[in-house]
Amino acid sequence: MNLNLPLKWQVPALGLILALSVAPTAITMYRQSEAELRQKTTQEQQQSQQSEDVRKALDRAKRCLLIDERYPLIEGANAYYDPTNRVNKRRLPKGTPLCSRSGYTAEVDRFGTVTDIKQIPPEQLNQVLQQRGLIR
């Protein structure tokens, strides 16, 4: 290749041409790898969070108060000893773990309301409830 430049400028000029022709591809590949890395990190965080939720729900199931399925766990709803709230208007104490056979667990906060609802496969929850003798 003849660049009509003095010999001492030809090598740097060819290097610059090569760099300018490769740079767009290199930038694109770098951006793609960064995007893939962010996506992988996000997926790992989601899986880690799901694992933590399952662990937390199973831990609650080991000591939970089994609730009647007719009165489902609803975030922010009041939790009473009597689910119909007709006879006894006493709220459950703070920290009481709740669970239902459908795979939901929750906890009662300091105001007596249902918070932090977690869901796991009902089979896993029911296995723990069977071991505790709460269900057959």
Please give the largest β-sheet. 4 strands, mixed
Order of helices and strands: HEEEEH
The overall pLDDT average reads: 86
Estimate the helix proportion, in percent. Answer: 40-55%
Number of helical regions: 2
Q: Which residues form runs of ≥5 with pLDDT under 50? A: none
Number of strands: 4
Provide the β-strand percentage band.
Answer: 5-15%
Global outline: rod-shaped
Entry summary:
The chain is an alpha+beta fold. The chain is built from two helices and four strands. It is 49% helix and 12% strand.
Secondary structure layout plus pairing:
Blueprint: H1 7-61, E1 65-66, E2 97-99, E3 104-108, E4 114-119, H2 122-132
Parallel strand pairs: 1-2
Antiparallel strand pairs: 2-3, 3-4
Describe this structure in words.
- The protein is an alpha+beta fold and 136 residues long.
- The protein has one domain.
- The chain contains two helices and four strands, in the order αββββα.
- It has helices spanning 7-61, 122-132; strands spanning 65-66, 97-99, 104-108, 114-119.
- A four-stranded mixed sheet has the order 1-2-3-4, with helices on one face.
- Strand 3 (104-108) and strand 4 form a beta hairpin.
- It starts with 6 loop residues before the first helix and ends with a helix.
- 14% of the residues are buried.
